[in-house]
Amino acid sequence: MKLVVVESPAKAKTIEKYLGPGHKVLASYGHVRDLPPKDGSVNPDEDFAMDWEVYGDKAKQVKAIADAAKASDTLILATDPDREGEAISWHVRELLAKRKALPKDVRRVTFNAITKSAVLEAMAAPRELDTDLIDAYRARRALDYLVGFTLSPILWRKLPGAKSAGRVQSVALRLIVDREAEIERFRAQEYWTVSARFAASGQEFTARLIELDGKKLDKLSLGDKGSATEAKKAVEAGHFAVASVETKPFTRNPPPPFTTSTLQQEAARKLGFSASHTMRVAQQLYEDGLITYMRTDGVQMAGEAISAARKAVADRFGAQHLPDKPRVYTSKAKNAQEAHEAIRPTDFSRERAASGDHGRLYELVLNRALASQMAAARLERTTVELTSDRARLRATGQVTLFPGFLALYEEGRDEKAEDEEGAKMPHLAKGDRPEKLGVDAVQSFTQPPPRYSEASLVKRLEELGIGRPSTYAATLQTLKDREYVRLEKNRFIPEESGRLVTAFLERFFEKYVSYDYTAELEEELDDVSGGRLEWLKLLEAFWRDFKPKAGEVMEQKPSEVTAALDEFLSPWLFPEKADGSDPRLCPLCGTGRLSLRGGKFGAFVACSNYPDCKFTRKFGQGGEDAGSSGEPADLGEGILLKSGRFGPYVEQGDKRASIPKDVQVDLDWAKKLLSLPREIGAHPETGEMITASIGRYGPYLQHQGKYARLSSTAEVFETGMNAAVAKLADAASGAGRGRGAAREPLAVLGAHPESAKELKVMEGRFGPYVTDGTTHATLPKSADPKAVTLDEAVALIDAKAAKGPAKGKKKAPAKKKAAPKKAAAKKK
Is 191 assigned a catalytic role? Predict the structure, then answer.
């Protein structure tokens, strides 16, 4: 017998079906062992020896694999085709050898897609385990362990409230903190835009002022209302004629098929998925044989896949949408290894697959892969300049001559460019005098750089060469789990703890959270996987510098660490004041100096005259004195900002309102918060009032004792009647899907050929399923519930009925009988 080991049970079932008799396929359920989270798991003094430990919940599965291995003459390790997959195979082999259960014949096979042809082709071409990949895995795992288990204890002792640090995690956090600091330093500048509206040949267009009295205007040239008004008058008084018309054709080529990081970015932009959710769904699509392996930085597709994609394009859009030659892509990402194909469907003729999030992600993968083999889009950009005796205006427009790949797919963007091309322009010629309809002067302000979204942060990490795409989802999730950051409107905002940890690491371990050094370390790890560098030499070089630095910081007293952070964070904690006064002067006693202090519950700012002066300020208030425990801040109109047991709040007379985390409080916000609840209006159906407010669990809507959640504090004051009615209806329908509610079937398939019971497809709490009224069988994740056939449903029902009731249900009566026996024993 041949024993085949894969990661997941879903893959195991599919592959066993492909291989047939003589093969037994078992799943390892991912990694079977890891470094235990304790001191000594990696020993630098003994050539970085590693003490591996089997996961507690994997012992049973490891035993099953070992028992099957003893009865087999061949072991085929068929885990995923990447570094982690190679490591899992190595761990399984090592464990079996340790238990003396390793068959003589051990083979390693990999396949990029779980289709019958791909699996059988891989089985016919086995290879040895890749020792370079295994060494790279061990080096990476040892590095992460040494950094985490060296830095984290230092953080716990020197920085109260800090939870952990990590090699890539800390650098990703620094990116978020640095961006927040940029936003805080940013000072908005006022500017005005003057534009005129024209009409020609029955079509309107807009032209922007670019030159006045012979002086070219840039974005900030008109910096106040006065200069904008003068410019507007000049345009209003001018008689404009077309001075030039320039038409330039250009082309846009399609983006390449998805890699791991670009899939995470596009799924975040277009589907609103987190990186971790994208990878979970993609994993299931891969295991169901619908897409190729989803952990890859390669952008190329196999020759047969390109041919299939081109055929699908020709069938759907016609031959005119195909380029003359197949497109071949190469990656521009730093450190890209391109070991595997890009992410693509396994069958290009399958336009739809799965349901829900799985169906949406499959469609995204399909469209991107198809578009990559489509013709370029042909467009035309027109620039028209109009002049008068004093002013020059410019209008731009863009026309699509041939959509090409844009007929199917357009790549999303995180931010819109300010100079977006205009709409279609009328036909104009030099000397024409279009009719002037009006002139507008619009005030604007420069905007700070945007906070990172998951998509833009993943993109930035990849650009810098930090981490690997397959680890980004876990890295971002760790930052959220540690509460170092929070997500608001899908943007990362650093919490106080995240900011403090970053400051500590920048001050004391600057090299190890620098972008360049982290990227260089990634390159060295890639050199290990490519056989160009010995993994032990990499670890020795790292530990030689890192260990003394860690020891030096550990020897410092907490007070010395706090003093160093006080100086490092001074520009943020104590920014210069507009009146030139000392920003460190205590606002309560007027003589003491403010400085950073460390306490049991984290860092805070306090007065040097303590205990005579008890002024304190929360660490995260960034230089604002408001809300201190020493003295309330007067916001105006009798409103005070105070700090209480549960955080800052505003007070006016006998009214109080807590300050939500997503609000930077000022007088206007204070008045809004104190005015709650807000009445939106009478419900159009019931006539009863809909209100919006903020409660213990966040912002919400209320109507007739029923509630609907809002996503932000801003929505409490912005939600109108139409949106409120829709949100309440959505909330009500969600509640109506609870226990006992009647549901309409998604599809009625017909009678079972043996029992004559009617088979239906229903939507359940854990996804769609088929039922005959007695037996329920869950549909595979990849199945489209509206496309299930009667034969498929019969097979699912029969298979479920043959299994009988769940094992857990048989055990329940035994547990109930145990109680009376104990009671009887007590009576004796």
Answer: no
Catalytic-role residue among 293, 409, 452, 472: 293
Q: How many Cα atoms within 13 Å fall on the side-chain side of residue 505?
A: 33
Closest CA to 130 of 83, 95, 71, 97: 83
| Sequence-distant (≥ 6) Cβ neighbours of residue 488 within 8 angstroms | 662, 712
d(C-alpha 410, C-alpha 372), whole Å: 11
Q: Do residues 242 and 391 make contact, with C-beta atoms less than 8 angstroms apart?
A: no
pLDDT of residue 87: 93
* 705 backbone φψ class: left, alpha, beta (φ>0; ψ -120 to 50): left
The one-letter code for the residue type at 638 is: G
| Terminal CA-CA length for the chain | 57
CB contact at 8 A, 160 and 599: yes
Q: Which residues pair with 74 in a beta bridge?
A: 2, 105
For residues 656 and 648, the answer to whether their CB atoms sit within 8 Å is no
Measured between alpha carbons, how far is 128 from 109 in angstroms, rounded to an integer?
8
How far CA 524 is from CA of 534, 537, 539, in Å, comes to 10, 10, 10
Q: Are 204 and 443 in contact (CB under 8 A)?
A: no
Tell how strand 74-77 and strand 2-6 pair up: parallel
Token readout for 302 is: 């196999």
* Phi (first) and psi of residue 336, to 5 degrees: -65, 135
Nearest to 650 by CA among 713, 622, 638, 625: 638
pTM, to two decimals: 0.71
> Which percentage of the chain shows pLDDT scores above 90?
48
Distance CA 75, CA 460 (A): 42
Question: Residue holding tokens 């400051």?
Answer: 503
pLDDT, one tens digit per residue, over 22-61 is 999 999 988 999 999 888 899 999 999 999 999 888 899 9
DSSP H or E run through 235: helix 225-237
What is the tens place of the pLDDT at every residue in 701-720? Answer: 999 888 888 888 888 998 88
Residue 481 has pLDDT above 90, yes or no: no
* CA dist., res. 781 & res. 289, Å (int): 11
Report, as an integer, the average pLDDT of 236-247: 95
| Residues forming beta bridges with residue 643, ordered by sequence position | 648
Per the CB < 8 A criterion, the answer to whether 513 and 170 are in contact is yes
